[in-house]
Design brief:
By secondary structure, the chain is α/β, with parallel strands linked by helices. The protein is 47% helix and 19% strand. It contains 12 helices and 15 strands. Helix 4 packs parallel to helix 8 and helix 5 runs parallel beside helix 6. The longest helix is centred in the last third of the chain and has 43 residues. The chain is elongated. It starts with 15 loop residues before the first helix and ends with a strand.
Length: 458
């Protein structure tokens, strides 16, 4: 025991395993992902297929492990002394206490030119507005048909179909196959997108592939692919590589998914959620229908209790009808008796006051008045006739026609005005002369006013 140690405050010592485990957790939680560049050294490839090597620069080195699932994605095996860039998780190998990096991606360090090209194209397309949020189309809530642009042999289509089969197997899926790596991939992806547009069935389009190096994913950084995605009328989802991989297609697409599986998750409804909602809706509907039926049954029962037997109602109506018929017949009989009595009384009064005698008296009086009227009218007609003859004789005596009969004439101007003064006429005027029998037309040749009249020469 050390002199300063006290049995009451002595701390518990960690085991080496506990220390290394805590150190590993600390490293892994502090460095989720890291990119490191250096010279590859001491590459070892045991039969397990895993790779072990060191990455060093002029002053330090770090141990690295790249397991078979990741190194099989590389197109070529790196060699001793290569300058490489790696992406991985910082960890610690507990068995030896070695600090190391678990490598997920490895690429030649000379790919900086590709990154520069990536940044330049990204800036140019951003300036054109191809990344703007307002031009992105909304994805359908429940797609009717899903199109997939990817390799028919890659892991991406398998992952997408697996997720869709689990979440909503009823949605049809059409694969538009294309190469997703290499020189022919760019034209193939553009052609596949155009085929999907012409096909005009999918209402959402997944474009992507599984993970790889920046060089492997480069076809999704090509301008032709970016513009094809931007011009696509179908809503698009970019699903390229892993979550840390970013391509130009991710910025142009209407939605970016970190992986193909995540893309399938984002665009497909979860049938289990639907089933749960349908079950809940069914239970609520059954409950509501049961409550409604109970209410309706209560109402029916109340109406049934108030409903009377229709046969009894018919019997009552028939009885009332018979009663009304008897009362009607009795009223008719009483009315007939009353009218018959009144008729007999009137007939008796008529016999007592017969009009025959009074008619005969009035007829005699009418005949007397008629005779007197005829006599009076005859006298009046004779008197009026005599007066009319006297007036006619007087009228004929003073009539101008009688004067005309003695040889005189009535002179009138052309406008039918009687001429009394010859000064009103002038030579050439037209005149007419009315005689006892007929009329003469003449023209004034000259006018000679005189003390006793006017001479007119024809």
């Amino acid at each position: 025991m050390y002199p300063d140690d006290s049995p009451t405050v002595r701390p518990r010592a960690l085991t080496v395993s506990e220390l290394n485990r805590q150190a590993r957790h600390l490293l892994e939680s502090s460095f989720m992902q890291a990119w490191v560049e250096g010279e590859l050294s001491g590459l070892s490839r045991p039969s397990s297929g895993h790779w072990y090597f060191s990455l060093k620069d002029q002053r330090a080195q770090v141990r690295c492990a790249m397991f078979r699932g990741f190194n099989q994605r590389l197109r070529q095996t790196p060699k001793e002394g290569d300058q490489v860039r790696i992406r991985g998780k910082v960890s610690l190998y507990e068995a030896r206490g070695d600090y190391q990096i678990i490598v997920e991606h490895l690429e030649p360090a000379g790919l900086g030119a590709l990154q520069q090209a990536f940044d330049a194209l990204k800036a140019r397309l951003y300036a054109e507005g191809l990344f703007a949020a307002e031009r992105k189309k909304p994805l359908p809530v429940t797609p009717r048909h899903i199109g997939v642009v990817t390799s028919p042999t890659g892991a991406a289509i398998h992952d997408i179909l697996t997720v869709l089969g689990r979440r909503c197997p009823g949605i049809p899926v059409t694969l538009y196959p294309t190469a997703v790596q290499g020189q022919a991939a760019t034209a193939g992806i553009v052609d596949a997108i155009n085929r999907a547009i012409r096909h005009n069935q999918a209402d959402v389009l997944i474009i992507g592939r599984g993970g790889g190096s920046l060089e492997d994913l480069w076809c999704f950084n090509e301008e032709a692919v970016a513009r094809a995605i931007a011009a696509c009328p179908i809503p698009t989802v970019s699903a390229v590589g892993h979550e840390v991989d970013v391509t130009i297609a991710d910025f142009v697409a209407d939605l970016r998914a970190p992986t193909p599986s995540a893309a399938a998750e984002k665009i497909s409804p979860d049938q289990s959620t639907w089933i749960s909602r349908l079950d809940e809706t069914r239970h609520r509907l059954v409950h509501a229908m049961t409550r409604q039926l109970r209410q309706q049954q209560t109402g029916v029962n109340q109406l049934t209790s108030r409903l009377r037997d229709p046969r009894r109602q018919l019997q009552e109506k028939a009885q009332r009808l018979d009663d009304m018929e008897l009362r009607f017949r009795q009223a008719i009989s009483q009315r007939l008796d009353s009218e018959r009595t009144r008729s007999d009384h009137l007939q008796q009064r008529l016999l007592t006051h017969r009009p025959t005698r009074r008619i005969a008296e009035h007829s005699q009086r009418v005949e007397s008045v008629r005779e007197r009227l005829q006599s009076s009218l005859g006298r009046q007609l004779e008197t009026r006739s005599q007066r009319l003859e006297s007036a006619a004789r007087t009228l004929n005596a003073v009539s101008p026609l009688a004067t005309l009969g003695r040889g005189y004439a009535i002179i009138a101007s052309d406008n039918q005005t009687v001429v009394r003064d010859p000064a009103t006429l002038a030579p050439g005027d037209r005149i007419s002369a009315r005689l006892a029998r007929g009329t003469l037309k003449a023209t004034v040749d000259s006018v000679h006013p005189g003390a006793d009249g006017t001479e007119v020469d024809n």
